[in-house]
What does this fold into?
Amino acid sequence: MKKLLFFIVWIASILSVHAQDAFMKGDNLISAKIGIGNGLAFSGTYEKCILDGLFRNENGAIGLGGYLGYAHDKVEMSEQGITVGCKYNDIIIGVQGNLHMQFVDRLDTYAGAMLGYEIVNSKHYGQSDDPNFDYSHYLEADVSGITFSLHVGARYYLTDNISANVELGYGVAFANIGLSYRF
It folds into this structure.
């Protein structure tokens, strides 16, 4: 019982400590992430803090930067003894902005938006003995154009400059984990 009480008091003391700024004006962040949601995806971001000291407690900040993501996946289906499929590549190049709020020491939480250009190309495979069989309407993935997304995330600083990162939203993946480096 004493150990449980000690643990609860210890956690409460950590949560009540006034948070030191995890993202301040002039800071730069680069992140590398692995994601899931459209096959296996990889993304990299760069972000620079352009404004800090927001809100009454002054622990809010705004960052702007770039986004680059890549995903590769394969979709396959069978119908009436015919197997068709599509292998596709998805690349997004964009700019993003994040609003950072720090509630706990060493934890940087953020929400943001990304505007970019998405390039999707695909290669269909499979065939039928029937020359009139058209499978292209089953799997169509050649689409490129402007894309917009929203995301939320958190970085926990393991050291003064290195953090573990978790992000949910949409880019080339729905869920991402990775590492960030602040300089």
About this structure: The beta strands are 28-36, 40-54, 60-79, 82-104, 107-125, 144-157, 162-169, 175-182. Residues 11-19 have pLDDT under 50 and may be disordered. The first strand starts at residue 28 and ends at 36. Residues 21-182 form a domain with the Porin fold (CATH 2.40.160.20).
